[in-house]
Amino acid sequence: MAQRPPLKPGEKRGLPPAVKLTPKWGQTVTRPVVPTSYAMAKTADNPGLASERQRARLVERLAQQGIADADVLRAMGLVPRHRFVDDGLASRAYEDTALPIGFQQTISQPFVVARSQALARSHLMTPEGMRSALEVGTGCGYQAAVMSELYESVVSVERIPGLHDLAKSNLANWPAGARLRLVLGDGLVDGEPWGPFDVIVLAAGMSDAPTDLLRQLKVGGVLVAPLGAPDQHLRVIRRLRDNGSSDSGGFETFTFESVAFVPILRGIQP
Ligand code: SAH
């Protein structure tokens, strides 16, 4: 660029005039609407980054609410809950609330998922490593994804074909998917071929303990379930001895907070 002559005493120099570009195609080029705040711009440009921050905040809240298991918190921080709900609900995905997923069912509240997993792990007495788990009630597959980060192998059974398909598509590219088997069936009986399990988690409620499922527990293994009617509580049942289901003394039960889950229903929905 040509050198400009040095300023004379008292001389002020303005900015050089902007080069004016005339579009060759002779049209008005409109700029995209500028979002009103930087935060919005970030969200619009990079939803992944925004949801990572929201998830980190969710994990902080879970820790404040008493979830102390670092592995559970890590798993909760990894699973993108917004991908498991309809686009219209994605902005609410990191609220600590259940949300509709169709078929009159809901995605579980994050605290309840974290709490169920933390309770299972803190009551487990089976040896570390190669642990297997069963989930009854896959729904959209959210908790199944969390569990695939915590156990070596996870079987998750769902009785509504539309939700089983939804979970399959939600989890199609899930990195830990190789540890996860999604089954269409009645979870109270159809997990059996892959049992016995270290951990069984029910994502739907029952009035009494499911005796068939308790038989699927390894000694030292635990079942976590919303049990009781009309008052439902999160309960942990641990298997103490290998003596069949007829001896109720072979299990011990621990009762925790009151919860409100949808009920378990029998058989595949036609
Ligand atoms: N696990 C889900 C929550 C699912 S809600 C999550 O991560 O958010 C409970 C689910 O249990 C519903 O999809 C319901 O269809 C299913 N369910 C109820 N009874 C069942 C049964 N006997 N076997 C398998 N699934 C069942």
Secondary-structure-based class equals alpha/beta
Look at the structure and give the CATH class. Answer: Alpha Beta
- CA radius of gyration is 27 Å
* CATH-defined superfamily: Vaccinia Virus protein VP39
Number of domains: 1
Helix count, DSSP H or I runs of 4 or more residues: 7
What are the segments in which pLDDT stays under 50 over at least 5 consecutive residues? 15-44
**At the third CATH level, what is the topology name?**
Rossmann fold
Task: Describe the structure in your own words.
This protein is an alpha/beta fold and 270 residues long. The protein has helices at residues 38-45, 47-64, 70-78, 110-123, 142-148, 161-170, 211-214; strands at residues 99-102, 105-107, 132-136, 153-158, 180-184, 197-202, 217-227, 233-239, 251-258. The chain contains seven helices and nine strands. Strand 3 (132-136), helix 5 and strand 4 form a beta-alpha-beta unit. The chain has one domain (36-259): 3-Layer(aba) Sandwich (Rossmann fold). 26% of the residues lie in helices and 20% in strands. S-adenosyl-L-homocysteine binds next to strand 2, helix 5 and strand 4.
